[in-house]
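does this look right to u?? adenosine monophosphate version
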Amino acid sequence: MLKLYNTLTRKKQPFKSIKAGKVGMYTCGPTVYWYQHIGNLRSYIFSDVLKRVLKYGGYKVDHVINVTDVGHLTSDADSGEDKLEKAAASEGRSAKDIADYYFKVFREDFEKLNIIEPSIWSKATEHIREQITLITKLEEKGYTYETSDGIYFDTSKYKDYGKLSRKDIAGLEAGKRSEMREKKNATDFALWKFSEEPGKRQQEWDSPWGVGFPGWHIECSAMSMNYLGETFDIHTGGEDHIGVHHENEIAQSECATGKTFVNYWMHGAFLILKGGKMSKSSGDILTIAQLEEKGFDPMAYRYFIYSAHYRKPLTWSLEGLKSAQNAYKKAKNVVASLEDDGKENKKYLKDFEKAINDDLDMPGAIAVLWGLLRDDKAEGKVGAIKKMEEVLGLRLFEKAVFRVPAEIREIAEERTKARADKDWKKSDKLRDKLEKEGWKIKDSGDDFELEKL
Ligand code: AMP
Ligand code: ZN
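got this back:
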């Protein structure tokens, strides 16, 4: 049985979908004003694994990812510039060009990382009407008020405000006085922002309240409910969204409908730099393209991500990625040397399923994969690994850089053993034998890599 950790209840819970055999899932997507860095991509690998595990369990998954192409301001306190407008001004291009370009790169990264595309990509600028309708609903129910810069949600009118992050609202109120401006409560947030000078922004729309643009939070409520219904199964995002963005999504959605918005809230922990968190402003942006330039296979990055559970922070390092790439190549080499006996190893598959169903324990799942790869007596290896691949998505069977025949690998292993025994004569002899067969062996520690000559 699949168990998932729900941020709302702070517990691992058995997963039960609203409709039998179907799951509605929403993932907070990119703000497309710049490249998504490898930290962002960790979040999407997490939601991809979740989706793959659900599919593996027989569910049909309706998955929506939004594309924030308007309304995300440089400050979370509803002030500052719109990130898209700012990028457009500094790059001298239209906001639409910027959004299209970075969205295209983002989709290429999905392909490179073997992340399955969602059923629907949902752009904020293509759902302005839905957002206005939702704000109107909140206004009719008395949850909104107007200030000189926009329409705000009054969080004091929602008694459950803060239930996701369990934050101390009173403390927050006291601490944030300086950011209050005309807001009634520090936690109130913009639903609609007025254009300061209509006609100056590239992206603005008419609304019942005046020319402007939607706030960042309302897009996710409007678009998720539009495609998945007023109550749906799973909502995912990075853990930074718990305290503000998702809290606000819950408030505005539940006040508008009077229903539970989402049953399972799931959050991925951050990829962190040694000195702190990885962010676009830290100047240390690393993109998938940059990794490729340094000679890494994007799949090695996916493998690297599996070294930590999705709820644990993972520290980024090139050394970590290097050893992930070595292990990944090695796994691929072993897989290439296997012969399909037409069976499926049930024992290892059972262990694998136990790991993935335990709140997506990917380090555990990888350990099971290695157990199987190393087990000389196991039958049904190819069949089992093919099934595991439905979840792992590591392209273990795809055009191995070179296919290593079993007998070649055996010679290489024998040589590694000879080296370990300091039997240099034997080791040199075996290396020559490999070269005669057309394979070059490279030692890396107590391991090896084989390359076709
Ligand atoms: P953004 O484009 O800033 O809206 O972020 C896109 C997604 O990446 C969100 O789900 C964020 O929570 C997530 N995210 C941002 N930084 C990191 C990081 N360093 N590690 C993991 N996820 C992140
Ligand atoms: Zn969102």
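The pocket of zinc ion (ligand 2) is lined by residues 28, 220, 245 (CB under 6 Å). idk if thats expected tbh
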